[in-house]
Amino acid sequence: MNPRLYPLAATIAIFILAWAICLMQFPFMLSTRVVGNLLTDNAYLGIVAVGMTIVILSGGIDLSVGSVIAFSGVFIAVMLRESGLHPLVIFALLLVLTTCFGAAMGWLIHALAMPPFIVTLAGMFLARGAAYMLTIDSVPIVHPFYTLLNDAYYLMPGKGRLTLIGVVMLLTVLIGMVVAHRTRFGAAVFALGGGEATARLMGVRVGWTTVAIYAFSGLMAGLAGIVFSVYTSSGYPLATVGAELTAIAAVVIGGTLLTGGAGFVFGTLIGVLTMGLIQTYIVFDGSLSSWWTKIIIGLLLLAFILLQKGLLRITTARTKA
Amino acid sequence: MKMLRRISPQLLTLAALVALVSVFFPEFLRIEIVDGRLIGPVMDILKRGAPVGLLAVGMTLVIATRGIDLSVGTTMAITGAVAAWSITQGYGLGAALALALLAGVAAGLWNGVLVAIIGIQPIVATLILMTSGRGIAQLITEGRILTFSHDGLASLGSGSLIGIPVPALLWFFAAVGVVLLMRRTALGMLIESVGVNRAASALAGVNATVLLVAVYVGSGLCAALAGVISTADIRGADANNAGLWLELDAILAVVIGGNSLLGGRFSIAASVLGALIIQTVDTGILLAGFPSEYNLVIKAGLVLVILVVQSPNLAHHWYALRRAALMRREARLAGIKETGQ
What is the pTM for the complete model shown? Predict the structure, then answer.
């Protein structure tokens, strides 16, 4: 097998193993209800993690996405309250706004030659601050279109609900896979993650690609914000604090190299589902406290990073020999 | 003199901020003595800036080695929880402090080993403790806010010595101590050399691995002190909120201090001034009567301005422009000479 596939294989193996362990204890976890909820509850995280995967594949990082999700929720809620616009129009406005926001960050990263970490940190402050300036309260969303969105689900056999936002997440992952692995842009992203100088020599337009990468991440964050607002039916400026770190963790557990240049979007989906599975297990168990989630996710992160480190050592040793 | 020149941009920024806040809030610089304590907005800033100031001291060293420590906020939560737990278990103040500092050392050691020996990128290595650390802190406090009533420990957060708040004294002396340690010995230079090029300094005989681990341990210690202060201040350990997002403020302080995230030369004094700038913005916005919602937007604007000023690209353009101007002038001078002859 291609050694580049090892991390992905390990991710999938761990997910199946974890599910098997859960099943042994709680046979009901195989039911479509649990599967449906797993997809619905993690829909926004899955979408934002797709954008984060692209950013990390290029060797960057985007700390602003959690704040952008919160801003999106607040923006939608306040716009619905203040204006008579149809939600779809507001969605379009929002997506344009967050895409431009991401593009601006990408442009700053390229133009100022500053580390993405600190530029997107400023973006994180700005987006959260903008959300606060719109409102500091939790604004409920009451609109017939939202009821429609929430009631749109496919009843799977076994009474599990495959909700619209779950499907949106799966579709986003699919689109992310095509973008990352089957387009010229995706090839440029991988090249950039391998090294900026080499990418430039290969003919990648570095500036344009950087802007596009962060614009894509902004678009995904906006979409995640819409999904999150459907999921919670409200906009709250303090929502999804730290979602960027959860997304980064999901990407790493999904087998993408944090140094960039190697990884799979599909792995990210498995990473998100693994984290969701841990949470579901803790809910099923009932006696474990929620803080174990954090500790286990931390340990999983460590395990995956060590695994990647080991694989890298094996493959470099082989090429040297 | 050289140091004054290094920190002059930060001093000027701070002075400008103080002047700006004074316009909106004329009483800003007033200090009164009440019950033998100095009281006033400035004292408040010195006291509230203590956690970020302490974190910035450790973070400066980590960033000087081309690293970053995302875990300091959670380390604060852990050490605060340890301190509160040991006090409620009936250990003395000394034992509680020792245990808390030990927890900080352990956290730093964990990060340092992951970065220096296993060779994981600093962002990722410290992210592990950042995500799992709050879980550990909650494990210690059993998910509650662990309150205590111990005047000795509480005085570390809210007490005062010769009229000055104890937290302010703690971070001032910690900063001075570390600066002396770095600049009166070769340690600072060695850390800078590791940050510029780890492989080259290792070849030159610098024990880069030990230095790297030590730097993260130092950061853990600073975080431990900050954690104890913030726990003592509220007389309770809040595993969820203690030190939340302070790692970002600390990194921001270091960046405002003009230290490059790419490692190398560093100035602790400038970072500490950066922490004071952040705290002055925070407090100033409140005093000036702006809603605190503006806080984050103003902070973002501040970061952006600093980024633009510090950008290596712009500096490059600036030098290119200046050199072009110089060459043009020389050419003109040469032309004058020629026509003169």
Answer: 0.85
